[in-house]
Specification:
heterodimer; A: 271 residues; mainly alpha; 13 helices; 74% helix; B: 268 residues; 73% helix
């Protein structure tokens, strides 16, 4: 069989498994209908709090790092949509990651004929967050004109940027959680991640140069919403696109190496 | 030990066990402190930088750049004392049925969970108090005000836990209280003065934070420690805090006694 056909077959196999995981998660979540509403309400309150915070700040100034309040709201819309997308597919899997190692749940995944990492990261989904994704996009649409977003076919760009946000969060979160192979307890690392992640709730233009550099390289949280909002409102230079690609590739390679090293250290806790 | 000694002894035993737990995971303790204190403070400081330096503002809400930096540093000391996620533990106990074990014991679950987590908070409060006392040598903070502010912060800690426990009781009805507690935490974070000082609120909206006790957690202690609250206002705040403790005590008693009647004790 030619290698390209084998690749397609393998992709199809992974896609089928992914769809089974989606179906399983949908059935599970359908049982807990209240959860559907409550998770939506929590995110709604979160949006209101973040928006109120900026309203309080903008009561004393008319621009923050050159951004108007409508541009900040547009940025918040992207941030919430991107975060919701991450919550749908990956968030819970990363929270459960330390259990895989500490309780030996990884054992069973290592015996399967598909990648253990693929199984570990697609096991849990929070499909109820689709509502939150819609809410984030709704905020973007509402403030798009006032923020100076051109609209039209540029909405397609928004979709692509949400993909970049999802990829960034997954790679960075993985880079934090992978240390569980060595530290055994992942709770503090997860908390540390979310504290750093809270930097992403503010547009990067408000930060000094050194912090912005960090947010574009070692902790690239600016790719979640700040850079997408800037790209959609003002546009980016070619070197900035190249920078984003390089950083994400760097994280990908690091995570690949760390996963392999972690597996070598893994001592099946269940046995 | 006689049976009558039990109520006194279990509290001290729970605190001692909590200390042992905290010291057993030293790296976790340091990481937790770093995550919950330094990072939010850094974000706030950068926000002030953006407002004052990039925005060329001489003052905001009548406060200078130095005032806001001082607020941020001092508020860290008190934001560490408030809360904790022990209300989530209570909700989880109701959900997974482990509460049943406590119903057989001669100690109340709500009180036990508080005392179990108290040692961590006492350790943090002592550290923060020491830092404040050291800072008093170089700043306008006085030792008396620092002690007073920490007392107010601890009152806030009790209220925070009581309100959380009362809300956790919704798990008796809905099995799940996670979302309710998350919403509470988001509101508290904003209205306690942890994200921005509450004097940032426009005057006609200040009633929003004044009607809740959350300002006693961080904003009140910080203002008192910084000398921006008179002794009279401090005593008013303390009285208000004690009133809230009493009200919340009744609230916890009411919600839990009603909730226990609905408790199905599944699992555990």
């Amino acid at each position: 069989m030619p290698q390209s056909v084998a690749r397609i077959m393998e992709f199809k196999q992974y896609f089928n498994i992914f769809m089974v995981q989606v179906k399983n998660n949908w059935v599970r979540e359908a049982v807990y209908r209240t959860n559907f509403i409550t998770s939506f309400i929590v995110d709604l309150i979160w949006i209101v709090i973040e928006a109120s915070l900026f309203s309080v700040i903008y009561a004393h100034t008319d621009n923050l790092g050159g951004w108007t309040i409508h541009q900040v709201y547009f940025f918040l819309g992207i941030f919430f949509a991107s975060d919701a997308l991450f919550s749908i597919f990956f968030m819970r899997n990363f929270w459960m990651f330390s259990d895989l190692i500490n309780k030996g749940e990884l054992d069973i995944m290592l015996t399967k004929p598909v990648g253990a990492l693929f199984l570990a990261l697609t096991r849990w989904m929070s499909l109820t967050n689709v509502l939150n994704l819609a809410m984030g996009i709704g905020v973007c649409i509402h403030y798009a004109d006032a923020a100076g977003f051109k609209g039209g076919w540029h909405w397609v760009e928004l979709t692509a940027w949400l993909g970049v946000g999802l990829l960034t969060q997954s790679l960075v979160r993985f880079a934090f959680v992978i240390w569980t192979f060595w530290t055994e307890r992942g709770w503090a690392l997860s908390r540390l991640y979310y504290q750093f992640f809270s930097i992403a709730t503010k547009p990067d233009v408000i930060y000094p140069a050194i912090v912005r550099y960090t947010l574009m390289t070692f902790l690239p949280f600016a790719f979640v919403a700040s850079v997408p909002a800037r790209a959609l409102i003002l546009g980016l230079e070619m070197k900035e696109y190249a920078g984003i690609a390089t950083v994400l590739l760097g994280f990908l390679l690091f995570n690949r190496w760390a996963w392999k090293s972690g597996l070598k250290r893994y001592q099946s806790a269940s046995s | 030990m006689s049976h009558t000694d039990l109520p006194r002894h279990w509290r001290s035993a729970a605190i001692i066990n909590g200390f042992k737990d905290t010291f057993a995971y030293k790296s976790e303790f340091v990481l937790e402190f770093f995550a919950s204190a330094i990072v939010p403070a850094a974000i706030q400081l950068l926000l002030w930088y953006a407002l004052f330096k990039n925005g060329n503002k001489p003052d905001i809400a009548g406060q200078s750049y130095a005032d806001l930096i001082a607020y941020t540093w001092v508020s860290i000391l008190f934001s560490q004392v408030r809360g904790g996620n022990y209300d989530f533990d209570l909700a989880e106990m109701i959900r997974n049925g482990t509460l049943s074990q406590y119903l057989l014991r001669p100690v109340g679950a709500v009180e036990f969970v508080y005392f179990r987590g108290l040692s961590y908070k006492l350790l943090i409060a002592s550290m923060c108090l020491c830092i404040g006392i050291i800072a008093s040598a170089f700043t306008s903070i006085t030792i008396v005000r620092m002690f007073g502010a920490m007392f107010l912060a601890f009152l806030g800690n009790i209220i925070a836990y009581q309100l959380g426990a009362a809300l956790a009781a919704t798990a008796f009805k809905w099995e799940e209280a996670y979302s309710v507690l998350m919403v509470k935490n988001l509101v508290v974070q904003f209205l306690s003065g942890e994200l921005v000082p509450l004097y940032f609120f426009p005057e006609n909206y200040s009633w929003i934070w004044k009607i809740f006790p959350f300002h006693l957690y961080v904003y009140g202690p910080t203002q008192y420690a910084l000398g921006k609250m008179s002794h009279e206002e401090f005593f008013m705040n303390c009285t208000q805090g004690i009133g809230w403790v009493l009200f919340c005590w009744f609230l916890v008693h009411f919600t839990w006694s009603r909730g226990i009647k609905n408790y199905a004790s599944i699992g555990g």
